[in-house]
């Protein structure tokens, strides 16, 4: 899968034009993209990036990619990010690395959202991957009880035996949504629970998905919301 991630990432940087303000996602696929982007910057490409996590900020900064903040940048030209799952309606689950909140803010503030993924991320039905929900610590118990009541089998995410905390100092609760048919309605319900800051359901945000498949990259373009894929195959 590493080769597929790298292929998709290398294809993604071909979308970058001189002078662009870029959203830089988070995750192992994005790390390949940042490495490829850094090589172009070293050769003279002029871009500035808004990192979606402290992890991305450190990597991109260390590799010499000029960075700024979302406040400074305003609307971004192009956001390149990974995904934990995507379906044929361009709906994503994100947040496996806990960066969902800043990632969604960046995606919402970008003109074009380009998703890069290996072929294991493509699913017929969302939910084999547990859906991350970012929660304010004060609300933990109440949110857990509500999610349990909704039959979503919530699990507080841990790291080294302690609650995992996000870059915004919140908690992550992972839930099982595989049995859910209407993810839009679910997202609405989840967002109405006090203390829930954001969910990892990215609906109506992805414009293009570049999926590594063996040594090729498949391009899925979302021309209108909720349509099926137009697929082109590119040899890379
Ligand atoms: O919080 C993490 C992000 O949403 C990632 O984009 C997602 O988890 C995919 O990561 P990876 O490219 O490592 O599979």
UniProtKB/TrEMBL annotation:
Record-level Gene Ontology MF annotations: ribose-5-phosphate isomerase activity
GO CC annotation terms, alphabetical: cytosol
EC id: 5.3.1.6
Residues annotated to bind substrate: 26-29, 81-84, 94-97, 121
GO BP annotation list: D-ribose metabolic process; pentose-phosphate shunt, non-oxidative branch
Keyword Iron included in the entry's annotation: no
Enzyme class: isomerase
A Pfam match: Rib_5-P_isom_A
Pathway assignment: Carbohydrate degradation; pentose phosphate pathway; D-ribose 5-phosphate from D-ribulose 5-phosphate (non-oxidative stage): step 1/1
Keyword Isomerase part of the UniProt annotation: yes
Residues annotated as the enzyme's active site: 103
Keywords, sorted A to Z: Isomerase
Reactions accelerated catalytically: aldehydo-D-ribose 5-phosphate = D-ribulose 5-phosphate
Gene3D superfamilies: 3.30.70.260, 3.40.50.1360
Task of the protein: Catalyzes the reversible conversion of ribose-5-phosphate to ribulose 5-phosphate.
Family from the record: Belongs to the ribose 5-phosphate isomerase family.
Subunit-level organization: Homodimer.
PANTHER family the record matches: RIBOSE-5-PHOSPHATE ISOMERASE
Protein name: Ribose-5-phosphate isomerase A
Organism: Flagellimonas allohymeniacidonis
């Amino acid at each position: 899968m590493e080769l597929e991630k790298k292929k998709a990432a290398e294809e993604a940087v071909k979308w970058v034009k001189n002078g662009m303000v870029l959203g830089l996602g988070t995750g192992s696929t994005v790390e390949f993209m940042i490495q490829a982007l850094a090589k172009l910057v070293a050769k003279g490409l002029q871009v500035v990036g808004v990192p979606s996590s402290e992890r991305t900020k450190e990597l991109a900064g260390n590799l010499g990619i000029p960075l700024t903040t979302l406040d400074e940048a305003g609307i971004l030209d192009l956001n390149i990010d990974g995904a934990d799952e995507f379906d044929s309606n361009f709906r994503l689950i994100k947040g496996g690395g806990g960066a969902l909140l800043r990632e969604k803010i960046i995606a919402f503030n970008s003109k074009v959202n380009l998703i890069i993924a290996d072929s294991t991320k493509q699913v017929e039905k969302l939910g084999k991957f547990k859906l991350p929900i970012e929660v304010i610590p004060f609300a933990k118990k109440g949110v857990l009880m509500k999610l349990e009541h909704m039959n979503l089998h919530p699990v507080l995410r841990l790291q080294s035996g302690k609650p995992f905390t996000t870059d915004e100092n919140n908690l992550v609760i992972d839930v099982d949504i595989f049995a859910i048919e209407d993810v839009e309605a679910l997202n609405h319900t989840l967002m109405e629970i006090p203390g829930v800051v954001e969910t990892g359901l990215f609906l109506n945000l992805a414009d293009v998905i570049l999926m590594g498949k063996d040594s090729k990259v498949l391009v899925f373009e979302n021309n209108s919301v909720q349509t099926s894929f137009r697929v082109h195959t590119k040899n890379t």
